[in-house]
Every structure is written in C-alpha cells, then in structure tokens.
Amino acid sequence: MTSDLRDGGPVPGGDWDRAVGLVSSAGEIALACHISPDADALGSMLAVGMALRAAGRRVTASFGERRFRVPRLLRFLPGQDLLAEPGDYPPTPELMITFDVPLIDRLGTLAANAGKARELIVLDHHASNTGFGTLNLVDPGAAATAVLAEELIRRLGLPIDRDVAICLYAGLVTDTGSFRHSSTTPQAHLMAARMLDTGLNPEQIARELWDRSPFAYLRVLGAVLDRVTLEPETGPGLVWTFVTRADRAGYGLPYDEVEGMIDVIRRTDEADVAVILKEDDDGAWQVSTRSKGAVNVARVCAELGGGGHAKAAGFTSHLPVEETMARLRALL
Fold first, then answer.
1. pLDDT of residue 77
2. Which segments within the chain are labelled E, that is strand?
3. Which of 237, 285, 302, 324 is spaced 20 to 30 Å from 11 by Cα?
C-alpha cells in the first residue's frame, strides 16, 4: 500500500485533485491521527472532520490507544463529539485519512484498519514519512499538518468557521513553537491571520495550551529536575532526566500532564540535545528529544524505532532507563 515519496517539495496539484475526488465520492470517511495526539494531530483531524460533517458527510474520527483519552490540555478543542472509541472504528474503511502520522505504527491499534482500507490518504509534514498510503499528501516544508488540513478543506470548497479555525490554529501555533521555530514561514503567519479573521481568541487558546497545569505538576517537576543530568561531553552536549509512574502516582498526576516538562529541560545553555523519558501507564518509556540544531534528532530517533522532526522527535523504549540512554548516547 505504498507509493514513492516526493523529494520534500509541495504536494503536486494532481495529488490534491485525486484526494478531492476520493473524498467527494466516499460514502463514509474515517479519520485517524497518531497515538498520544498533540494539538497538530488532533486539531487537524477534528478540523477536517467538522468541515466534512457540516457538509453533510458521514465521518468517524479516532486514535488507536487502548486507554482512549484526549489529553487534558486539548479538551478545549471543538468537535470532540466526532471521536469514537478505537473498537468502534470501521474495520475496513472505504476511505481513511491519517493526520500527522509519519509511519503506520504510530496509528497504534488503528494500523490494522489502515492496512485494510480501500483508499488511504496520508496527510503529513514529517520528512521521515514512509509513504504508507495509497495517496501521500506529504510536504516537509509545511509548518504543520494543519497547513495541509486547511488546504484540503479549501480544495473541497468547504467553509472554515470559528470552531474549525480554532483547531487549525492550535496545530499551527504549537508546531511553530508560537512562531519561534525555523519552520515558521510567511505563509504560516498568513494562515494565522486567516484563522484570526474567524473571530477566535488567541489569548484564550494560548492559555489553554501553555499557561495551565495542576499544582501536582509543580511537585512532580521538582522531582524530575532534582535528578536531571548534564553530560557536556556527549555529542554537542546532552541534558536528560526521567519521570516515573511512581512520581506521578504520588501526586495523582496523569501521564499526559508531563508533556511540557521537556521545554524546561531544553533551556540548558550547555547542551544542544535535551531528553526526557516518561514512563506511561503501561510501563513503557516514551522518550522525547529536542535539539537546538547541531543534531538531527529525527534521524537518531528513527534508528530507535521512532521519528519526528530534525529538532523535535521521539521513540518508545521497553528497556530500563540506563539501557535506553546508553543506546541513545551511542547514536549521538
């Protein structure tokens, strides 16, 4: 079910035309984003889902986790009544569209559904995308998958109302790091302007995404910072730490609340690469990495079964912390 991936350029017009044809002719459309969804993945999926539903189309949306739960910081996004449990997802979709998914394994339990889909459209902006769809709308130059989601909605001739815009804006603003990352283009700012024109409140969205956390977050962050390690001799400098299930359980902090901790770790001047290992509720380590530019962490994480962007990537490890870090150090 694969096709050749283009060489990192914009999506050809012919591919967009084919996508529009597939969506227009499908009786039911199944949408999916990657597991542990971020604002770009979930926001892009919900935006397209709401636009299609408003046009009278039958839509199902989900992500493939056994513990199916939207992260708390994303529960403000509109359109979540579209979401279905993975077990209720069409087993053999007529048309399936994935959002922000660079490789099929990142679909979790829905990877099997994708493998049985009659047509599979992959909408993504990761350079590491493996081209696992029957149609791959992949543009590594796009600031976010939300950019491609807006383009699909536009080409379908569907309007973007305030709720759709909130979801698209959330994806855009997070993947550009509030327009601080090098992925920020003039086109990204123009898209933000279009979303603002719908009447959304950027201050409210920013508060939901970055300025809220329970008090327990501060207590767990204190423990995580207490064990942080700086290794200036590893590659161009490495700073790392970890957060265990026990850390979280001691203060009743859900797993999805620790996502932003790496943004504190990465500020270290003496290290180009920051790493945090987060033990999830099943005992696996979800490893997040960030780079200031000297190391392409997407390549490092790909060697360990993951992927992402040059400056932000991750992977899953079932090894103990020290063994996981030993493998990571060797690649750095």
1. 98
2. 28-33, 58-62, 95-99, 119-124, 135-138, 229-231, 238-243, 273-279, 285-291, 307-308, 312-317
3. 302
